[in-house]
Structure prediction request, 288 residues.
Amino acid sequence: MGSLVVPVENTVCALRRLAPGAALRSPESPELRVLARALRSCSPAELAAGHPGAVVRAVLKAQSRALDRAMTGLFGSDAPEAARLVRAARFSGRGSQLSRVRVEPGLRAAALGWASATGARLLADSLRGVPLVPDTADGRFAAELAVAALLPRAEAGGEAVAVDGRAGFLEARSVRVGDSGFRVDIRADPPVELTGVGETLALRALWWNGLDRVADDLGHEYLIVRKDPEGAGVVRHWCHPRPAPGAKVLKLESAGYRGECLRLAPAAVHGTSAEVLVKRELMVRLGA
Prediction:
């Protein structure tokens, strides 16, 4: 699976306008290198139509690795298809797990059930022996894999730079600049409300989804290679590369909020959640 922390479309745009000094990794597999080059001029949605062979190979490899992990029983879920797959693998013959899937009917049927249940469509089609034709979702997943293979690792620590920026529930606390990147710390204080109607209490809360775009006043963009999963308190974001020479302002675009409501009745607890598409932008002045 890919390891992107922001939508792949945002990361592709950032790669095309990347600040100087970036040091990207080189994808190990030939198909991911082909897809990474293709994304310089086409969108993730266009990838399957423009490069179907590379998309099929990249996605099928990723789905096969996920199947291999699921067959061990250590990384699966509680779904009945996963349990059947583990049982079938346990009582199958010798050899590598994926090679046994191809030759043992019982194991292949369990793998097909797992692939269908988990949405691994290309793997399911491969097990059925039908032609493999990627769709837009396959192309987007292949783009995530290719872009994730390019991203550098997050850099720890760095020298703190004075900053100033606030927008709504968000406040920029610090920017720490390292040798090859920087970390932005944002304090998020979304509201929490507890109300009561009769014997029922309702807890309503917003959780911040973090940043999904970082740019500067010179027109450069920066990759968000890692961010804290917490939606409140101080949320850290690791970016690459370090701020461009001459940049005086960072433009930090919020990814919105996740709204949750928990109803606490005497007999039961009911919860609902929804994405709240409220975009905010912080203008952080470096060295303020």
Q: What stands out?
A: The chain has nine helices and 13 strands. The first strand starts at residue 159 and ends at 161.
